[in-house]
Amino acid sequence: MRVLGGLARLVVATLLAGVLLAGLLLPYALGVGLASNQLTTTLAQTPEQNFNGDIPLTSTITDIVGNPIAYVYRQNRTYRPLDQISKNLVVAITTVEDRRFLQHKGVDWLGTTRALLSNAQATDQSTQGGSTLTQQYVKNYMFLVVAKTPAEKAAAIAGTPVRKLREAKLALTLEQQLRNKNDILERYLNLVAFLPSTYGAEAAAERLFGVHAADLTLAQAAMMAGMVNNPNKYNPLDPDHVTDAKKRRDLVLKLMWQAGRFSDATYEKATAQPLGTEKGIKTPNGCLPAANSATNGFYCQYVLDYLRNSGMDDNEIADGGYTVKTWLDPKAMKAAKDGVDLNADPTAAANKSVASALAIVEPGSVRKVVALASNRPYGLDQAKGQTLQRLPTTFAPLGAGSTFKVFTAAAALQAGLGTSSRISSPPEYSSTISPAHAFHNAGNYPPSMSLQQALATSPNTAFVALEDQIGLQKVVEMAEALGMKGYTLDAGAVDRTFADTNSTFAQQIVAQKIASFTLGVTPVSPLELSNVGATLSSDGLWCPPTPVDTVLDRNNKVVNLKTTPCAQAIPAELARTLTDAMRDDLKNADGTAHAAASAAKWTRFAAGKTGTTQDYKSSAFLGYTPFYSGAVVTWDYLNRPKSICVDTKAPFALRGSCPTPQAMGETADKSSKGMSGGTVPAATWFSAMTPLHQPLDNAEFKPADPTYIAGQPNSQVPDVTNMSIDQAKVELTSKGFVPNPQIETQPTGASANVVTRQNPEFSALPGSTITLWYSAGGTTGG
User: Fold this and answer.
1) Which tens digits make up the pLDDT trace of 2-59?
2) Which of 602, 604, 586 is nearest to 594 (CA)?
3) CB–CB of 581/451 below 8 Å?
4) How far apart are CA 93 and CA 223, in angstroms?
5) Which of 228, 331, 337, 508 is the most exposed place for a label (fewest CB within 10 A)?
6) Where are the alpha helices (DSSP H) in 274-374?
7) Can you give the pTM of this predicted structure?
């Protein structure tokens, strides 16, 4: 296209200025005959614009004492009223951007016309803007606040007469609506970009100089005022533009000096100062780049996940200027992090595939999540063992082992058994719902024991048999009620094996007849498992775990989040009795956590349950006191997980991946054995909880209830062995049980029709079936 000559450009500019002036005056000067002009038509059709909408502000996430954990934003901006912004900046910005700011009514006619004429006569590509601060505010507001799509953003800054005309009209209207010029200044100084991705005076002052906007010196204010013209070109943090930034700052200082804003001496002193950006403070965006994110990152991510699930979308969080005060307790977090690192050192080469996560929750009607820690640092550098997997809050795929026996025990108490009820623990047991697979104990156990002793010593066969009595569905329902709420999610979200089944994970456990559920073979969330302990410690009251104390909006008003109400999962007396029984795991010599408790010199009241999965690929410990509940899950978190071993001479020290373990978990050279829940997980719990409880009283749990100790009277199965089968049936029926006679197939030597054995032998759920084997006579069964 041929470039217009200077005279032609001058004519066009003069005409355009006249049209612009006439168009702008149209609302105030009736009868101007420009209806056919496109610009005038555009002006007349310009819709009203509300400039009172909320501008994007940075949201801040803090711990319980108010220390920032992270910042979240799309536009880094912190709002400050005008009286908290340095007057140096106010003077500098008006001097360089709008010298007649106090005189015009939104559009500087003289400046606009001069700029148009100057641009028309220019022989190079330099141009003058001519826009007032009010017009700039309108332009920035339309671009940064109103425009949502790329097309809308392009239109908001298009260099066309149409856009300029709309901008001018809106500027005139805005100044009529606002109280005074200070309103414009306050809005402008809080909105515009001073640096790339840094908006408003406060955020820019902190980023450049590490000071508040109220404390800007003359030289600092001059540099910031010069930057709004072109934040990229005049960015002093960019090594390629340091010289540009200084020249621009000195130009602003010169203009202020020429306008008589300060003396010659002040001018010389200000221009001699270095840029002084060494103390600038960068505001990291999100959990990953946040300070101390290697430790706090898992908690930070959990907070954002929680807010999303509570009805706030990502854009709302990033733009809302919220202050999210969390329950993260720095002391609890330090104790938790020290605990997982001490017992599963992430820097040891042997432990490179081992993840150990600890979640700590406070019991009570507000279920405060005070710490979420992992030995794996939160981050992207896999070479340093970092991960972004939500290790403490989402599902560890390998299970928590025998900690799940707590659910079977709770369901048994609810069904009528007591903690003193005797249950059988045979060396081998085949489940009635999955008879093809025989279950075995990991060790030697007496043939029967109380339910309380079984919780402490953890025989597998006893709990699988108990699960059969109760019914798998009721045990799964108990797990859900006490805290495993993730099992109500779509099955594929918990285990990809069950994707597209159109059912919950809990439903799939029952449908697939996973008899080993009580042995903790299914995925588990450390946080949910910790909340199970908090539920038991809270008299059976389940409450949703929460990381958030309060959310305040930009006006310091409380934001109400969508929450789930608490629910009484089990009777309080049941919870107290189960808790009393679970104390033996720590205090009794045969308890699976006793060795770890003794090593830690733990003497407080606490209840717990260890867990170990088959092949030692994961293990866990759930422990709780009246003050805190914590769950530790330790597993091989990489693809193709392997068995994990501990040192036989130092049983709480990890050895990393095992050589092929033997049946009892001990390696051939006897130097290591499979990691159980009573080793690393329990030791981690004690390491974290000891300092956390140090300033607290040794509070006792509430006492057990006699009803749940003894169980229902009709849960005691009479011994009918050596009775005739008819007499045995009468005896069982009189107690409310259903006899199921079976001819004995094993050699017994008993007389015909004499009962040789029964199952269950000691205790059973009221009304349940008792299988009776009776002799057919002779030396063998018939």
Assistant:
1) 344 444 444 444 444 555 555 544 443 433 344 335 555 655 566 678 899 999 999 9
2) 586
3) yes
4) 10
5) 331
6) 293-309, 314-319, 330-343
7) 0.89
Which residue ranges of the chain lie beneath pLDDT 50?
Answer: 1-16, 24-36, 119-120, 122-128, 662-664, 779-782
Q: Are 553 and 321 in contact (CB under 8 A)?
A: yes
Q: How far apart (Å, rounded) are the C-alpha atoms in residues 16 and 38?
A: 12
What letter would DSSP give residue 146? Answer: I
Element of type H or E holding 541: strand 541-542
Q: Are 734 and 437 within 8 A, CB to CB? A: no
b/e 392-421 (16+ beta carbons within 10 angstroms → b): bbbbbbbbbbbbbbbbbbbbbbbbbbbbbb
Alpha carbon dihedral 225, 231, 233, 238, in 10-degree steps, equals: 100
- The full length of the chain comes to 782
SS in 3 state form for 266-285? HHHHHHHCCCCCCCCCCCCC
pLDDT score at 25? 46
What residues are paired with 357 via a beta bridge?
374, 633
Q: Which amino acid, residue 194? A: F
Closest CA to 336 of 693, 731, 711: 693
- The per-residue pLDDT for 149 is 94
CB 421 within 8 A of CB 762: yes
Sequence-separated contacts (24+) of 208-214 with Cβ below 8 Å: 208/236, 208/237, 208/277, 208/280, 209/276, 209/277, 209/279, 209/280, 210/279, 210/280, 210/281, 211/279, 212/80, 212/84, 213/80, 213/84, 213/85, 213/86, 213/89, 213/189, 214/80, 214/84, 214/85, 214/86
Strand-pairing partners, residue 754, are 724
* Residue found by looking up tokens 């002779």 in the block: 778
DSSP 613: -
Report the alpha-carbon distance of residue 718 to residue 755 in Å, rounded: 13
Nearest to 346 by CA among 318, 320, 378, 315: 378
638: Cβ contacts below 8 Å, ≥ 6 apart = 353
8 A C-beta contact, residue 82 and residue 182: yes
Question: What is the per-residue DSSP string for 8-28?
Answer: HHHHHHHHHHHHHHHHHHTTT
State whether the Cα torsion 157-163-165-167 is positive or negative.
negative
400's CB contacts (< 8 A; 6+ apart) are 520, 524, 529, 611, 613, 618, 619, 620, 622, 631, 633, 677
The pLDDT of residue 282: 95
User: CA–CA distance from 286 to each of 132, 282, 319, 322, 721 (Å)?
Assistant: 35, 13, 13, 14, 69
3-state secondary structure 732-776: HHHCCCEEEEEECCCCCCCCCCEEEEEECCCECCCCCEEEEEECC
Q: In whole angstroms, how large is the CA radius of gyration of the chain?
A: 37
Q: How far is CA 695 from the centre of its chain?
A: 28
Amino acid at 300: C
Helix (H, G, I), strand (E, B) or coil at 2: coil
Separation of alpha carbons 546 and 370, rounded Å: 9
Rounded to whole angstroms, the Cα distance separating 683 from 693 reads 15
